[in-house]
Amino acid sequence: MTIQPEELHTMDSHLEKASDTGKLYLIPAPLIPYSVENWQPARLRMSIPSANLLLLERIDHFIVESEHNAQRLLSRLLSPERMEHIGFSILNEHSSEADIAAPLALLQSGRDCAIFPDAGMPCIADPGAALVAEAHRHSIPVIPVGTDSSIILGLAASGLDGQHFRFLGYLPVDSAKMESLLASEAKSAIADRAARIFIETPYRNERTLEVCKKILPDSLTMVFAANLGTFSPCILAMPLPEWKRQKHLIPQVPAVFCFGIPAQLETMHDRRKVELAKRRLPRKK
Amino acid sequence: MTIQPEELHTMDSHLEKASDTGKLYLIPAPLIPYSVENWQPARLRMSIPSANLLLLERIDHFIVESEHNAQRLLSRLLSPERMEHIGFSILNEHSSEADIAAPLALLQSGRDCAIFPDAGMPCIADPGAALVAEAHRHSIPVIPVGTDSSIILGLAASGLDGQHFRFLGYLPVDSAKMESLLASEAKSAIADRAARIFIETPYRNERTLEVCKKILPDSLTMVFAANLGTFSPCILAMPLPEWKRQKHLIPQVPAVFCFGIPAQLETMHDRRKVELAKRRLPRKK
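ok -> structure tokens follow
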């Protein structure tokens, strides 16, 4: 079987069988944290592509982390009449496999649904991924649209060499385990130059920073990135010696931490040129 | 020094010093591949948040991979009069460190600039990261807005357990090195459950698929994701035995490959619950 690009979405018996099921959309929610001011409808709408707004107008069933949060957000984007037609399934850290059955049945009956989390991208370090895995098993088309990802925003803004990177999720809470993981990741970051990214519960930011200052070697650069997804983010990117010289009392807000080697054009080129030469496509990104 | 969330963007002498410089915005370009049909202005605009469109209206200097591609894209979003006021710097795989000097001088003189790549997110596996690193060294604020990332779209749509993940960039071209890397990443993916993501030059998709089928063990699921950023993506997610049973002639289009363990709610819960219990914040995401 040979597939033309324009036929991609119908490619494969795997997907063709799925034509009478609904589609599972993955729609990111704005990263802008809730406040009456921040969540003025006009302001919220400006951060969402209109294609996604149209999708929100069309879909009748949402799989959400919290009905309260989803209602609060959607009611600022949709009319009260529309809101009455919307059904919700809950999928969060308290759900069991059984909670996947209801949205799965809806999808199988032909209804389009969307996973719509509290903030950011669904299914990245998120229980929604289990429903996506189940959807694939039942040949239900999965359609991710737009990507509000604090991980990617933080990495892009870090200036670290992101040719490769590792997302470490949450670090272990146990101090000894956390220090040992940081030490080992720092060592391999120097060897493989891949940026390391992790997240932490906001009230632990300060302690995490202190442990990083203690463990990470001076040859690395560390980045603290908060207020991502707004037009006034806080990106602190400094070599470790500079972090160690100053005392920073960083705030208890959602943030992304990264460490690694700052990007250098020559180094990136050297590797890229070697690879491109091997690929015999010298001008193609 | 203690910082309140609303002061984050002015936090730190590091950033305060920067007030008379311009800002460096990181603006993603639509992932939709070029065709006359795909790039109808109304259609393009629907995929871009209006906050980003306003930013494109306001910024006079763009750091781009190719002036030709940037002109072609921007001229569909901006008026001809506006286009005449825009300056460009080129930063791509042929640039040298010297090419960073010109945009850096503009930023230092107080002018706002934007890195705007051919497609997707700037600075992720991209030479733009070197300018961002330099901006941080000169205390120039870096502001990433929106995130069209095929890596994140592909991972979200994969249904793999993305609590942790690794982006491997391009795999080595040399067959022996590629097979050995895949074998070692597959082994550690089973141990650490972190999804692995990589990209390939489109004309090599087929060969890559064949090597994956040869090397990856049957306990893993592999995902081929193409046409990302459109409403008709192609996401093929199957356990390795299923890939091996069928012959798939996948097309030569930009794509993301992932492999790993499919997400399971119970497994994600177990780890999450243990971590949350340790953090004593049982209800917070």
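Chain B is about 40% helix and 15% strand.
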